[in-house]
Here is the input.
Amino acid sequence: MIKPLFINPIHQGEKVSFVPHGLLSILSYLNDRDIPFELLDLDLLCDDVDQIQDAICQVFEKKDILFTGISALITNYHVIRKIVRIIREIDEDQIIMVGGSLGATLPASLHCDLGADFLIDRDGEYVLEQIFNLFISKSINKLNIQRIIKSAPLYFDVSNYNNIPLYNIFDIEVYYKYIRNSGKRFSVISGRGCPMGCNFCFKMAGSKVRKKKVSAFVNELSYLKKTFGIDRFSFDDDNFAINPKWISEFLGELEKNKLVIEWRFQTSLQLLNDIEIIKGMKKCGMVGVSIGIESGSKHMLEKLNKKIPLDNANNIFAQLRNLDLAISCSFIIGYPGENEDYLDETLKFINQTCEKNTFQVFYYTPYPGTVGYEECKQKRIISDEKSYILNLRNQNAFSINCTDLKIETLKHSKKMMLSSGI
Here is the structure.
């Protein structure tokens, strides 16, 4: 049977320590509609980019492929470009579609360079269902595909999807072994969307928050525990605690089902003011929280459009520590306008508020689709988009200097911050 092929790409220099949420959701949705597919998990199969050609060739030799879909991050552009070229060498007529943040934000000047036929700039569930049906009806042409992409809803309604994701299409045991050995927790999401307007962040899932039904999410957690023995979770929504009513119902459902798990989540500082909700979370297995502080400088927080109650941070942190909850924070340095005084303010904040080795410091990386990226283009900080995107990596690496400071100053500040803390 001829089937579409979906590729989870390798991420050069690192193994991704989670099952790809977007691709998992898409394939689960297609499976529920009896749409067949092949999955090529290059991130699991390959340890190096040099190995991907053989893996792709083997699939095309053994299977009849209807079309190819690739889910990708913009930081992985150089790898996706290579994958597209490999497929073109095998089958020059193969229709290739790229989604994820790469599909949604790749600058128009690089569309031809990538070489894919279509970029999907929205959630893929509804789009790919319609495209598959178009192939089956034999009314396929590129104009029809483009019409479907542009007319499909931007976002998938997770609140009305109650089935447990099809985790067994991935090799969960291998994933979980890697996650466990690296000291991390199994990543799941309870919803999509974030209403915050941070200038450095691209929101693939949009601003409107859509949560899974509480019962459906708890069933998903129960399934993972019973089927794979997974009982340590990281809830990696953009902002897990955004809806207090949903959280209250979630805690009640955990107690009702007597589901014993450990979990942490990521959220904004201002959503941790209600200590009674936090106590309820701890009672139901919450062991820690990750908070995006981003800067100890109020001026830089304004530049970042990061609206958090910085003056109340010490009080919130103290309440969390009194409950013996682990706190991890993240900071960004090097946003346009950063200077040594603002870096010193962040260093001072860390020394007053954060315990040693409980936080991360990232260099600011301008991502397409964000306010910060457009600012960097306007200021000619980014003057050659193709060169910039080709060399773009994740935020652990230094991609570009967006300040008037010397690179050595930023690197020294990061070193000082990472060695600081209470």
The chain has a mean pLDDT of 94.
